[in-house]
Amino acid sequence: MRLHEKLRAGAFPNCRKLADELEVSTKTIQRDIDFMRDRLGLPIEYDQLHFGFVYTEPVTSFPSIEVSEGEVIALFVAQKALEQYRGTSFEKPLKTAFEKITQGLKDRIGFHWGDVDSAISFRGLGTSVADLELFETVSRAVLDSHELAFDYKKLGSSRHEARRVQPYHLGCVENQWYLFGFDLARQQLRTFALPRMRAVLNTKARFRRPADFSITQHLGDSFGVFTGKGRYKVRLEFDEFAARLVGERNWHASQRIKSLGGGRIELTLNLGNLEEVERWVLSWGAHARVLEPVELKKLIRRTAEAILAAS
Length: 311
What we know:
With 311 residues, this protein is α+β, with helices and mostly antiparallel strands. Among the domains are: 2-55, Orthogonal Bundle (Multidrug-efflux Transporter Regulator, Chain: A, Domain 2); 132-213, Roll (SH3 type barrels); 232-310. The protein is built from 10 helices and 11 strands. The chain has helices at residues 2-8, 15-22, 26-38, 69-81, 91-103, 132-144, 215-218, 240-247, 275-283, 294-310, and strands spanning 44-47, 52-55, 146-152, 161-173, 176-183, 188-193, 197-206, 232-238, 256-261, 264-271, 288-292. A hairpin with an 8-residue loop joins β3 (146-152) and β4. The chain is elongated, with a radius of gyration of 25 Å. Mean pLDDT is 84; it is low at 110-116.
C-alpha cells in the first residue's frame, strides 16, 4: 500500500529508497513490484529518466481482495480466535489489523466482536499476558536478526539474570509466547518465556541465523517446549473414560495408539525429556498408568507421594 501511494503521487519510488524507508531488503521491494504488476495487473514500469517506477495509466484504487465464502467463514473463526487476547495490550492492534484485512474485501462485510458469540467461541486456560512493547521489540529482533539483551528470571529462581541472546524464533505454545535463541554466555540454544523477561533491549548487533535451524526439528522430541538429550520411549495406558479423550487429539508427531480391548488404549511417544509429559500424565489422575520407562514411573510416584504429604 505504501508503494501504491507513492506511485499514485508520482514520486518515482525505486527499490533502494523504499528498502531504506521501510527497513526491508531491495529484493523484497522488487518482489512486491513484480507481484503488483504480474498478479494484480497494475500498470507499473521503470522510468529511466527519473530512476524510479511509475504508473503508466491512472490507478484510482488498490485492487480489492477476492475471497470465497469458505474464506469468509475462516475469517470469522480467526476473529473469534483473537478474543483470547481481549483486555490485554494485544487487543487493539489485533483488532486494527483484522479490520484492515476486511476493508480490502470487494463486498461490504461487517465484522463485530460480538457477532458470532452464540455460534463460535475459543477458550484458553492460563492465557499469558505479555507486554505489547516487549513483544514488538523481540519480534522485530527475530525478523531483523539483531541480538537481544535482557534480564531473565528462571523458574525456581528469585532474581533476574542478565542475558544476551541471538533470537532465532518466536513461538506460541499452549497460549504462552516463547523465544528460542542462542545464549552467547552459555553457548547453548535456550528457551525463554516472554513474561519472565524484562528490560529488553534490541542491541542492533547483527548475527547470522544458522541455515540448518528448524524449530520443528528443535522441538521434535519435546512434549511442549522443554528439549532434552535423552531418548525415552514412553508407553501409557488409559482406561475407557480417558481413552476416547486421548484418542481424539494429536499430542505428538511420534505418537502411536493401540487398542487394548475393553475400551482401553496404549499411547506410545518418543521424547527427549520427561518433565512435561509427567505433568500431563498426572493431569489424568487414576485414568492413566505408566507402562514405561521406569524413570517416569518413579517421577509420578514421587510427585504423588508429595501431593499426599501436603494434603
